[in-house]
Design goal:
This protein is mostly beta strands and 205 residues long. It has one helix and 13 strands.
Length: 205
């Protein structure tokens, strides 16, 4: 049985979880990768009946929702170049982060903008920007976010600094000085929870 980071995945068939884990790039929540084709990040619904995933196809990233048996595939966001989706505890809402405060424009910019956090209904309706661009210290790149168990608060990891790095001939952006924040789901309150300026904070789920 493949290792699973959260008990919420315990009822997901082993082959499904293993496939998603293999297709999702390591460290994807903290890097802006070069253009690739494949699953970038995913989340499994609390009911274990649906999967939402970001799929990158030659520079255009879409957010898909699919039933666990592979049926009912549909696009739930095609405008924001979404990353790191996360279901709410009741499965009715989805969080995702994006480089684009408005709508995505191709090609992607040489230097990404600060990452914003969005919330929407799980069917893709009522997309709203929850945080980003000026609300958080530094550049405020929201690299990952999850719902609190009561569904009324969102916890997010935000990096105040970003730099371009190069490895094995590939250029990518890495985030630094990461801290945790709590945001109400209506965006009205924001509270800094840590002052770590950590190199990495991952796997909030």
């Amino acid at each position: 049985m493949p290792w699973r980071p959260s008990p919420v995945y315990k009822h997901v068939p082993d082959f499904v979880y293993a496939l998603l884990a293999l297709l999702t790039p390591v460290g994807c929540s903290l890097r802006a990768e070069p253009v690739v084709t494949g699953i970038h990040s995913f989340s499994i619904s609390p009911s274990d009946q649906q999967i939402v995933f970001a799929y990158d196809n030659n520079g255009k990233r879409l957010l898909y929702l699919v039933e666990l048996d592979g049926t009912g595939v549909k696009v739930v966001d095609d405008s924001h170049d979404p990353l790191n989706p996360a279901f709410s505890p009741d499965g009715t809402k989805i969080l995702f982060s994006s480089w684009y405060p408005e709508k995505y424009q191709h090609p992607r910019p040489t230097r990404p903008q600060p990452m914003s956090l969005f919330i929407m209904n799980s069917d893709g309706t009522n997309v709203e920007r929850l945080a980003g661009r000026g609300q958080l210290p530094g550049e405020g790149h929201i690299v990952e976010a999850v719902f609190a168990p009561d569904g009324m608060t969102v916890y997010c990891a935000s990096a105040s600094r970003m730099s371009q790095e190069r490895s094995f001939g590939t250029s990518f952006w890495s985030f630094f000085d990461v801290d945790l924040y709590a945001i109400s789901i209506d965006g009205s309150t924001l509270k800094q929870l840590t002052q770590l300026k950590a190199y990495l904070i991952t796997s909030l789920s």
